[in-house]
Write a structure and sequence with these properties.
Residues 101-276 form the Snurportin-1 m3G cap-binding domain. The structure is a single chain. The chain is of the alpha+beta class. Helices cover 28% and strands 26% of the residues. The longest helix is centred in the C-terminal third of the chain and has 23 residues, at 395-417.
Length: 418
């Protein structure tokens, strides 16, 4: 049945400039396979963690056992075994493990076509992204680079010596942002709760658990002797017009740093994923454009890339995307090494968009970064920064996407009724 006459005109939508939607579709289709790969890597890591530590440098150089091989006890380690064992690690091993576990959003370059139907939205707190683990009477938070932010007692399950309950393997893992002004950990996702893994659960289910399980504890109470920092769930909304307005314009107890979008059907995937997106403009973030080392917005766009052994300059994506290379003479002259993070300036005339990806014809070395930075920019961040300077994705574009989605649903309902 044809749509009714005098139907409102479809709102104008900004044309897509990236291949983000294509990769989103692919990510959802291959989610089960990726999950199996992640579990295999977890089993491999667990084998090495649960086995005795090597007693000599020669033994330390040996590769880990096969992911499918049981450990010395004859058990096939699960994700729960990995997390439980990792909570007991110390030093570089522990930092590396935690650094690998966090899920990082892509930058929203184009609005998803079914934003209202398939996505949640929240106002992202400004602060330090970290992973919080409560186990064996102590709570530890770690930054994205794996280093410890805080070690403290909390009201999370087994997070303090008071009221320890359940088996020693009972632990919880939360994905948080620490907001320093009110010393609060704002929970943006839940990975494990009392030893129950949520890796394979949809985002919609994980957000339900965040709110329901947090109320079962006193973790949201003000700080006390056995509860050093307060925990609070970040409000999640349906990406409807009302939800988008609430996240974008509504008041929050924290300083906003953009909006976070979660695909409702996405599982928790370590690393960068197009099924989680971050978006900013000048209204909901103080930091729309990247600044230089002096805190000023440069006249030319800057990008941070990692130097590889073959001289290529790559992003932090998996697999990485090469934006150029350095010759050996410059590498030696500048005393650079593989793994160094380098800042480059980009001239607008050297940029091309080809098949949804960004190509840079010329990079100008602007300097080497200090060790506090742990990873290069992602391709989506570089493209978002370029678009923010020339053709930004505005809040009006997000509204138009939601309205267009709503009109499609209404049109479908009319056809079904006919």
């Amino acid at each position: 049945m044809a749509p009714p006459q005098h139907a409102p005109r479809r709102p104008y939508k900004r044309p897509a400039i990236s291949d983000q939607q294509r990769r989103r579709d692919s990510a959802l289709q291959t989610q089960s396979a990726r999950r199996a790969d992640a579990q295999a890597r977890a089993r491999s890591l667990a084998n090495s963690l649960l086995s005795p530590q090597p007693s000599s440098p020669a033994a330390a150089d040996q590769p880990p056992p096969s992911p499918d091989a049981p450990d010395e006890r004859g058990h096939d380690p699960t994700v729960a075994d990995v997390a439980s064992a990792a909570a007991k690690l110390r030093g570089p091993d522990q930092r590396r493990w935690f650094a690998r576990q966090i899920m990082l959003p892509e930058w929203m370059v184009d609005a998803p076509p079914h934003l209202a139907r398939d996505w949640h939205v929240s106002a992202r707190p400004a602060g330090k992204r970290c992973m919080v683990v409560s186990s064996n009477g102590i709570t530890i938070s770690r930054l994205r680079n794996g280093t410890i932010l805080h070690r403290f007692p909390s009201a999370l399950p087994n997070g303090s010596k008071k009221g320890l309950s359940g088996p020693a393997s009972s632990y919880s893992i939360l994905d948080c942002i620490f907001h320093e002004p009110d010393e609060t950990y704002y929970i943006v996702d839940m990975i494990c709760w009392r030893g129950y893994s949520l890796y394979d659960c949809t985002a919609e289910f994980r957000f339900f658990w965040v709110n329901s399980k947090l109320t079962e504890t006193s973790a949201g109470d003000p700080p006390s002797t056995y509860h050093r920092y307060r925990f609070s769930a970040v409000p999640m909304y349906e990406s409807t017009l009302d939800g988008l307005q609430a996240a974008y314009s509504g008041s929050t107890p924290y300083v906003k740093d953009g909006l976070l979008f979660y695909n409702k059907h996405a599982h928790y995937q370590a690393g960068i994923t197009p099924l989680t997106l971050v978006w900013k403009d000048e209204t909901c973030s103080q930091y729309l454009l990247d600044t230089d080392s002096e805190g000023q917005v440069p006249t030319e766009q800057h990008v941070v890339l990692e130097l590889q052994e073959d001289g290529k300059l790559v992003t932090s994506d998996d697999p990485p995307i090469a934006f150029g290379s350095l010759d050996n003479e410059l590498i030696q002259k500048s005393n650079l090494r593989p793994g160094n993070l380098l800042r480059f300036s980009v001239r607008d005339e050297s940029v091309k968009l080809v098949d949804g990806k960004m190509e840079i014809g010329q990079l100008q070395l602007a300097g080497k970064l200090n060790r506090s930075r742990t990873s290069a920019d992602s391709h989506s961040k570089v493209l978002f920064q370029y678009a923010a300077r020339h053709a930004p994705l505005r809040i009006e574009d997000l509204v138009a996407s939601v309205q267009s989605n709503s009109m499609e649903i209404e049109s479908t309902d009319v056809e079904m009724q006919g």
